[in-house]
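Q: Can I see a sequence and its folded structure?
A: Here is a first one.
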Amino acid sequence: MNPFPPIPDPQAEGRSYSPDELDNALRRLGEQRYHVHHPFHRLLHAGELTKGQVQAWALNRYCYQAAIPRKDAALIARTDDPELRREWRRRLVDHDGDAPGDGGLARWLKLAEGLDLDVAAVRSQELALPATRFACEAYVRFVAERSLLEAVASSLTELFSPSIISQRVSGMLANYDFVSEATLAYFNARLTQAPRDADWALDYVKQHARTPETQTAAIRALKFKCDVLWAMLDALHHAYVAPGHVPPGAFEPEAA
């Protein structure tokens, strides 16, 4: 039996939620389904992974980091709204930076380097799990092909990221002697960027999702994004925690 409450569905209920009700529905969904609850993340934060397993997480997560500016650029290309373009352009700068070596993507590669990974191999994404690559590409396609409202709503996982970042940084610093504050510097900027971005996106969704149909679409878009992040951790757990399931050609941690 599924222990989680059903997903809110204004369309099935035949009524429009108020902006506050929609806000609450989105937050309840994220609180239930955000990947902070995944067993792999619990192991990561508790210091129960080997260095090789942490390396596998960082290498695979880079695929997601690299997909973010691609999906943001896809959203910008679709809209005639200058305000929306200005907002999303800032996200591109956050990830790509204004110069080589700047931005979140470069900081993630510094994290990989701090974990003794080959940066060129990480950047190539060739050693990532197939499921990781498929999940990330599905997210890019979702933003490029679904409605603008759904594309914006899918970013609302950032409402919940400050809590997972705080847990991740404190847990990893306390439990792994192979990480340092410099290794985890990527997360410092996200503690301010993510809430700023999420607040704007949430306001946009509440302003533009007014009918039962559009509100249900926004809620399901957030569910889709939670599913993307969860699927990536399912793949990591299957490949690197359950022994013997690393697919051919994927990253193989060195023996401890």
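Q: Show me another, different protein.
A: A second, unrelated one:
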Amino acid sequence: MRQQLQTALQELTSGSHADATRVVGGDYSLLAATDHALARLSGFNAASEALSLTATAMQKALKVMHDAAQNLATTVLQASAGLNAGQLSTLARAGAQDFQTTVTMLNGQMAGQSLFGGVQAASLPLPDAATLLLAAETAVSGATTAEQLSDQLNSWLADPGGYASLYLGGDPRPPIAIAEGETAALPVTALDPGFRGTLSGLMKMALLDRGLFAGDHAMRASVGLSAAGDLVDSAGERLQIAAGIGMIEQQLSRAQARNSAEKSAHEIRRNGILAADPYETAVRLKDLESRLNAFYTLTSRLSRLTLTDYLR
């Protein structure tokens, strides 16, 4: 009776039958199918939540890069009419810092996983800013005009043997399942062509900070204006990357809502299979309590019974 009482108390507390075999009559097919569906939905939710967190982190990194590029370009263009050597040096120093910030954002990580490293998420996709600048400086060493500098730098950024050869990441991430019959992916890497214009503009300013065309203020000013133009022209590319990630975020949000609704439906079905009637369970619990109390009372009386009392 104590065991039955414990079972009834457990069923009343949990709301489910303790003996599932008795409830399903030995046929676990429907219960197993429901549990399998819930497990799949749990996997979908874990994947979509991880992808959503990565997308959010990417958007934050893109905003930092975009704001830095926009602010620098605006400052250079506003000062272009009376840009002297001292102002240009200050702006070049700011551009070098912004380039370093951009490299840091492209090397950003979340939970130890690279944001823009593709499938090689365990390692940083780019070397440090100084290494990149040294390679770019070598690539444009023969330039004698701002136009040649732009052409050579753009060629180096697009050349598989140039900027891409310094990329330490992997291929873009493949799509993963986020719902039944639906996949999503965040394929953006540090090699995305949409970053080239931003890198070109910031690299030009950083190269000026390293002494590019030293002593020729007119040439340096021309490079500064070219850099500002690159940053302005590449704004659309940065926003396009952000918009693409935003579309994935919307897809993930819709998939999570559908998964949540489907999960609720399966949980209702599962509860319908295993749920114990709280009224019936409470009545059974009360009956067991009464019977057990009666048994204890009877046992207590019998334990005090003697032959003399019995004979009386």
